[in-house]
Every structure is written in C-alpha cells, then in structure tokens.
Design goal:
homohexamer, alpha+beta, Tetrahydropterin Synthase, Chain A, 5-stranded mixed β-sheet, 4 helices, 30% helix
Chain lengths: 136, 136, 136, 136, 136, 136
C-alpha cells in the first residue's frame, strides 16, 4: 500500500534575480522588479512529500517528528532569515529563482531521506506562484 | 530536469446550470438550486500549471509575468464580471459546469502556450468544490 | 464577563450594481464591470458575531447550533444560489453593494437575536474586499 | 476527456496513537505527545477526488450533491465528534494514524463509488501535515 | 502611539462538553454530538493580541520571540496534545467550551504580561467558530 | 449608518532590524536572526480599513477601485520588491519593524484619504505575526 505523506514548513528570505553573464540592462529588462540590486524578499512555504509503504505495525509511513527535524536542519538553518544570493553558497553561481530553490531543496533532502521513499518538493514564493519538483 | 510552475488567478462570474434538451422540471430536479433561471454566481479561483524544462541560464521554466498576461487576455477578459451563459459564446450551447469551464480554459490557454509545456488547469468553484484537467 | 462568539457562513449569488435614477452611461462609468446588465457573481462569506455574557452553568454565550439554524433560515434561504437584484425584494429598490447587503443581513438577524446580545456582521465579497457593520 | 472533481469535507475527532503489541514505554518513546492515554484531537479536513469521463449532456463528471451525501453517510456519521480509538470499530485493532485513517476512508468510499471512477483521498490532520492515498 | 501586535499559535486537544449538575439526558439534549462521553477533538488556533505603546528606539511594541516563549510555556505545554477535561485542572470543574477556554487562556497570559499592555484572546475551535475575549 | 470597508493588498520586500545607536553585539542579541546584515524578507499582507457613512444613493462607502489605486500609488510603488532599509527614505533613520511599517503606511494613506473617514491599517509580516494601527 503506497501512500504519500507531506509536511509544510516556512522560511523568510531575501533574494535578487540576476544572471551574471548578462548586462545590467538585460537583467533589468528580463527580471523587472525582481532584479532590484538591493534585494526584495518572500515568506516561502515549502511542502515536503514522501511516497512509500505504510509500516503495518506502527501505521507510520515516515515519522513526521523526524521529517520536521531533517527539514529544520537542512532547510530552515540554511534559508530562514537569510539572503539567498549572499548567504547560500549554491546561489552565488546559480540564480535563486523559485525553480532553482526547489531543485536545491530537493537535492539537500534527497541526501537525508532513504531512497525507498520518492521525494517531491512544492515551493510557494507567494500565495499565487509556486513550483513542484520530484527529481525527474 | 522537469518541473511544474503554477500561477493562481481569480474571476467573479454569474452562471446557471441548465440543459436545453431537458424539460424545466428535469433541469430543476437534476441541478437543484444551480438551475435558478435568474442565475447565481461564484468567485472562481483558477490555477494554471505548466510542466517543462527549466532554462539553465535564466533559471526560469516560464516567465510568470508573461503567463499572467496570457491569463489576463484569455481568461480574465472573457470571464471576469461576466454572465457565463449569456456573455461567453461557448456556453450558449454548452452547460457551464465547473467541469466544462475548466475544459474551455484549458483549450483557450493551450492555443497560447508552446506545446513543449504540458498544461493543467485546476478550477475552484467554491473553497470546497474543484476540478483538475490536463487535456488527456 | 463579556465575550464575542462568531459563526462563519457562505452563500453564492449573482448581482449587478446599478442605480435606477442614473443613466446607463453614468452607471457604467461609476460601477464599471460591476454594472454588467447580465450580472456577475460571488461566493460571499459572512461572519455573524454576538457579544454578551457567558452563561456560568453551560459555559455558552449562545448555542452555535441555534445560531447556525437562524443563519440558515434568514440568510442562506434568502441569498444562496439567488440573483440578489431579481430574487431579493429589498434589492429591487436598493443597490446590492457589499455595504447594503451587510446592512440587510444585520437587520434580518437583529429581528431574530435577543437584544441583550450586540450583533456585528462581517461580509466578504471577495477574499480581498470586505465590510463590517454593527448597527451604529 | 478525463477530469478529476474534488469535494472537501471536515470532521472533528479525538484519537491516541498506540500499538497494543508494544510496551507503554516503547509507545511513549515512539509516539511522544500523540500517545497521551487520555487522547487529544484534531479538525480533520478530507478531500475526496474522483477521476473519470465528463457526461457530454449534463456536463457533470459526478453529481457533487450525491458525493456530499455519500461522504456524510460514510465519513461524517462514522468519524465526526467521535473518539477514533473507542468509537470506530476498525481502530480498535489498527492504530489511527493519519495514514491509516486515509486508507479506511478510501475503502469506505470505494464501496460506494462506481469502479469506473478512480478514487483518491487527501486527508489533513493539521494545516501542516497531510496524506494522499489512491488505493495503489 | 498605541498599536496592537498579535501572534498566532495552535494546539490540538480532545474535549467533551458536559455539565456535572445536569442529567445525562439533559447534557445530551443540550450539547448534542459535543457531549460524546468518549470525547472528540479540535485543532485550536489562538491569536494573542497586545495593545500598547511602540518603543521609540527599538520600534518594538513587544518582542514576539518573548511572546512566543510565554505562549509556549503557558498555553502549549498545558493544552497541546491534551484532554482538556482530564488533563487540565481548571476544566475538571468548568465546562471546556470555546468560551471558557478563551477566558482561561486570557487569565494565564494576564499573569505573565505586564499590565501596561491590554490583552485580547481570539480562539478558533474550527475554521468557522471562534470567540474573542479581552477581560472586560 | 457607519460601516467599515476593507481592501487587502500585498507587497514583497527585504529588510533588516537594526538600531544605529546600538553596538553590533547589542543588535544581534536583541533582534536575533532578524538582524542579519545581508537582509531577509517577507510577503507583507496589508489590509486598509475605512470607516464612515454609506452613500444612500450609490450604496458605496468608498469606491474600492479608487482605494486600490491609492494603495497602488502610495504603498505598492514604494514598498513592493524593495529593500525597506535601503530603498525607503523613512527607514534610513527608523527601524523597519512591522510596527513602524504599519505607522508609515497609515501616514501615507492618511494624506490621501478624506478626514471624514477613520483609517486603520492591519499589516501581516507572516501568517502568524501581525499588527493593527488606527492613528490613536
């Protein structure tokens, strides 16, 4: 019996969308307000979803207390109340779009979650804009 | 790397559920309050989801500013503050159920979004009733 | 010990904003899209709040099962799945703005709720637009 | 044309996570606060999703009035304002985790919904913890 | 300059509405499903609001990190994952209605918050039922 | 007949909490993660509430189309996708706490809204932290 369990978390961060290889004018034209060199920010909402078998004795697919701890260690500590461009190593070379943030979160958690579970990340940048990534 | 990006939008419209080929009594029995000949209405919430490859330079799957513009042109202009039965050509012959509205929205956007992106529509008629359609 | 208890309810209705005494052009200029002669509609959310003393034995300020029944009889039956302009007597002469709808709801419930309770109505026309009325 | 229609419902229940075969200390260590022998409780939110063909005449995939009635009979009556461990036969032997509750809801509704529709359950135990189950 | 700052928190608890002085039949008739002797439960949402002067140097009315800690100590520890009737001393003699829970929360926090701040509690028992209490 | 009408808006901004007159260590101790010199950010939600008389002819208290335009000009243009500390003149000398941001928004709108209307600002920094300010 395969089932999916999800845990929602939040982090508040500053960022700026900018491609190093492009000119200032190109960046401003492409990213608009999101290119502000002084940064802007968001309350990001992240939903971590694990798919796998339910343990027939405990009735747990995955202990959400442990999942919360992994999210705290890998995501909250790294992203919360941070400037994604300046404080997160990976975004010194990669543009911190909502797409790229979700891919990085997936990679960070994939290292910590047993491969017998499928992993999917849903990341809201605002209430109206969000992405989903499952590693495929 | 395939990812899904979504943009939420809203429109407020009146409608009435009614099948021309049925008698007044049949329509009333089948659709109940939704058959009110004077119409009722909803705040519709629509989520447009595109699945595709993330551009390795910009970090964008699809520019949400452009997606918002397409939604404004194709959906807001056509449905917002309208009577779906009277003001929308397609619903003069088709019953504007939440199912049929989602199919029409999918078709309208499919014409505007490059085929390299998969397209899915999620449409909420109320907070508690919603449909999903991906063209299959 | 004075306390306020609130119950949320919903109704879905069509309406049109229009002032009989104005010309068609004046109405269109003033009310814009809301003046569509074919109507549009909303999922209205109404919060009914009663302020009074908590009964020291039961621990109830007002039985919410009874409040729900009063709301069903006075508000749901009258407004849900209706056209406010055509189906609600009071709006044949008054413009069904969110302000005027909240005032009517307040009057309808005031007749049914013992005067020892203060009564306040909060009415959402959309998630982003709402009014509050307490009879003063 | 295959489409998915969903209906959201709610029930408020008490429960306790506990495995009969384990010692008191093992249960407390594994389930933590959720093992409180006096029970705790939740407002559960359940979303029932049916996937199938839209009827070309009515424009309905499934009549939501009927789906609501089935949910009321099978889920609300059985779970709402109940103690899952004491009042629900199936949880006298099975641990009422959110995973196991979703599986039971799926089974109860599968008996009532025509097999031509795929059935999926989404169950929120809190705003931040939820599961999805589709019978596979 | 007087301002109000609010912090939202949550706890999940079981309870039963029952008045010791009444017969079983009276309790069942008055409280209905809420009188289930086996208990039911809720995800309670509590909003703690402090009104006072903003400090002209720090720009803080009250440090929300400290407010969160006080709420954790006084409310979470006492109510979260508890049976209100059995685990909370005050509700062994008082009926744990949403009204009475809000009054108890107010008293517990009033002891911890400097009297120069006005204190108000908003407590949601479900998304649709809630109370407000400010000590008057 | 006095009534209150409200309009919700949003802006996404970066900020840092810091008092110039304090040492780096004092700021870090007092503001914690919020003192990150590289900034962090939020999706701010602002609710603008006007209280006044309903016009007996139009049924409007205040035209929400005009209120939206004023909010766009005074708040969105100034705060959205900005760094509050660097891009907003007033916060070069004042600490951009949620309290101080709400006071500034109130002042900016007070200049634009006729004094016959009472004005109140509700500002959410996160879903769980918010302030209310009405100029008293």
């Amino acid at each position: 019996m395969e089932l999916t369990i999800s845990r929602e978390s939040h982090f508040n961060a500053a960022h700026r969308l900018n491609v190093e290889a492009w000119t200032e004018a190109e960046n401003k034209a492409y990213f608009g307000l999101c290119n502000n060199p002084n940064y802007h920010g968001h309350n990001y909402k992240v939903i971590v979803s694990l798919t796998g078998e339910v343990d027939s004795v405990s009735g747990y697919l995955f202990d959400l207390k442990i999942l919360k701890q992994i999210i705290d260690e890998e995501i909250e500590l790294k992203f919360d109340h941070k400037n994604l461009n300046l404080d997160v190593e990976e975004f010194k070379i990669t543009n911190p779009t909502v797409e790229n943030i979700s891919i990085l979160i997936w990679k960070l958690l994939r290292n910590r979650i047993d491969k017998k579970y499928k992993l999917k990340i849903t990341l809201y940048e605002t209430e109206r804009n969000f992405v989903e990534y499952n590693g495929n």
